[in-house]
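pinging the channel bc i need a second pair of eyes. not urgent but kinda urgent?? the chain im working w is below, pasted from the shared doc
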Amino acid sequence: MTYGIIRNCNDAIEGIEGSTLSQEQKNELLGQLYFLRAWRYYNLLKWYGGVPIVDKVQEVTAESVTPRSTTKACIDFICNDLKKSSELLAPFTQNGGWTGKDLGRVTSGTAEALLGRVRLLYASPLFNRSNDVNRWQQAYDDIKASIAVLEKCGNGLQNFEAPGNNAAGWAKLFSEVEGNKEAVMITLYNTTASTSAADYSKNNPWERGIRPKNTLGNGGKNPSGMMVDLFPMADGKRPATYGSYTKLETSEYTYDTNPESPTCTPVFMNRDPRFYRTFAFPGVHWHFKGDPRNDKNNNPYDGSSYELWNYVWYTSEKDRDDIESGNTYGADNLLDNVKGLYIRKRSDDLQVSSNPRYQYSQENGFTYNANPYIEIRYAEVLLNYAEAACGLAYAKGGDNALLKEAVDRLKLIRQRVGYTGDCGLQANLESDPAACMSAILYERQIELAYEGKRFDDCRRWLLYDGDGMGGGLYTDDLPASWKLTGWNGNTCNWLGVVPLNGQRRDNIEYRVRNDYNNGLGGNSWPVGDASKNPDPLKDIKRPKALDLNEDISTSQETLKEFYDTYLIRKKKKGDSYDSNKGEYKITFYPRYYFLGLNQGAQGANSAVQQTIGWGDYNNGGANGTFDPLAE
C-alpha cells in the first residue's frame, strides 16, 4: 500500500510538472506532494532502514525491479524532498499558515519539522552506533532553523499563557482546530455518516474508545501500572518508588505503591498536572455532552455532571486474591465492563471544551467524532530541539551552553502546564549530558503519552537492551559492526534507565477492602431496583469527586481518606501468563530493531535484499544480507 501511494505521488508530480497550470499553481501542489512522498519514505525508513527509492512512475513489467538503497541514500532523498517542499510552500504558508477550507494542509513548517525528526532519527543510537558528531550537528542545525519557519507558519505552544487548573489549557489543545498553534501536522475528521462514496466519512473513534461503559462509550482503555507510576509528582520530579531514570532526582512527595504499607499512596496524590488529564481513576469528574440514562439501565449520571467511581469488587475470595481473575465488577453500573484505571488523554472533555466535536445519542452513545489527531505537535519540535542540543553537547565532549538550550526548551513545555522557576528540573542538567538526556526522554514519555511516539523512542535509543545486541539476554546472528561504541557501549546504563526486556506491564485497580463484606459483592443489578445494587459500598457516603477545573489540593486529601478507609490497591494482570502460571515478560530480540521484509514484498521484487537477521525468502531462508547500518 505504501508503494502504491508513492506511485500516486510520482504520477501526480510528473503530471503537474507537465501540465498547463501556472507556475504558482504547480508550486502549491508540488510542495504538498514532495512532503507526502517524503512522509511515506520516512515511515518505511524508520522500520527497515534503507528501502528501494522509486522517484518516477515505473512501467508495469517484470524488469521494473529496484534494489534497496542504503539508509544514508534514503535519508538524503527524504530530506531533499522535504527541503523542496518547504521552499515551494513558503510563499503560501509563511504568512500565518493555511486558513479556511485549506486548514490542515501541510506547510513549510510541517516540512521543516519532519526534516528535523528525520535528522534526529539518523543521529540516534539506533542508526548512529559510534555517536558521530556530524549527525548530531546536522540535526541540531536543521531543528533550530525550523523554529523560525514554524513561527512564520503560525505555530507555537498552544494555550501557553493560559495553563488553567490542572493543565486545562494543555488538555484543551487536543480538541482545537481553528487557531491551534500546536498543530504542526494534523489529521482532520468529520461527523459525516458512512456512505458508499469513498473518503466522505472520516470519524475519529478515540472518544468512543476511551469512555467507560456507563457513559455509553466502548468501555475504555487501560493504562499500565508502569506508566501510571512513572509520572512525575507535583514538584516535577520522579516518584522515589519508580526505579528507572535513576540519574534524575526523586520527589519529596510520598508515593508508596505497596498496598500492604500503611503509607500506600493513591495514584492521584500530588502528581504532575498532566497526570490528571492523562488518566482517570475512582473519584474524578469527566464530563461529556449527552445523557446515558434511560429506563433500560442503571447509569447514574447525566454527562454534564458525570463522576467516575470505578472501584471494584469480586464475588468470591478466590477471585479476589487472584491477580489473573477477570471476574471483576465495578460501581455505578459498570459491573463486568469496568477498568481499574482509564486513559483520559486527548478526551474531548466538556469541562475544557464547551462545544464538543462528537455526536451523541442514547442509541449509539459517542458516535461520529470530528476531534483532530495531531501527528506533529510544536511541543515535540521543542523536545526534538532539546534532544539534538544535548546529543551534540555530548558528542562534542561537553558544551554547557548547548545543555542550557536543551533545558530551556524543557522549561517552556513545563511552564505551559503551570510550572514556574526551575520547573522541577535539577541543576546538573546544564552540566551533565547523560542526566540531561535522561530528563528529555522522561519528558517525552510524559508530554507525548498515548500519542504514538514512545515505541519509536524506545527503538531509537535501544531501550529494550541498551546495546542493540540483546544486552546479554538474547542473541541474533548480527554483524559485529553493529556493536554500540558510543554512550559507553550501553544507552540504558548511560541514561540510568532499566532496560525494557525482562519487565512486565501489569495494571492497577482499586478494590473494596476486606473490612467491607470481605471485599465481595454481587454480579448483577436489576434495572430500576436500587435495593439490589450489588456494590458493597452502596450505603457509604462518597466524598466530593475531584473537579479538575478547581484547585484540588484540599479535595484530594478528602478523597485520599475515602481510599484509605474503603479501597486497596491491587495489581491486575496486564501481560499474560503461560499455562504453568509463569510470567510473560517483554522479549525484544535484537533483530526487531530493524524489521525484515515479508514474503509478499520479496516475491514482488526479485532485486530486493532481506534485512540481516531475517530469513531471505528469495534465498531459501538464509540469513538476510542487507545491512541498514552500512553507508
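so The first strand starts at residue 183 and ends at 187. and Residues 23-48 form the longest helix (26 residues). — does that match what u expected or am i reading it wrong
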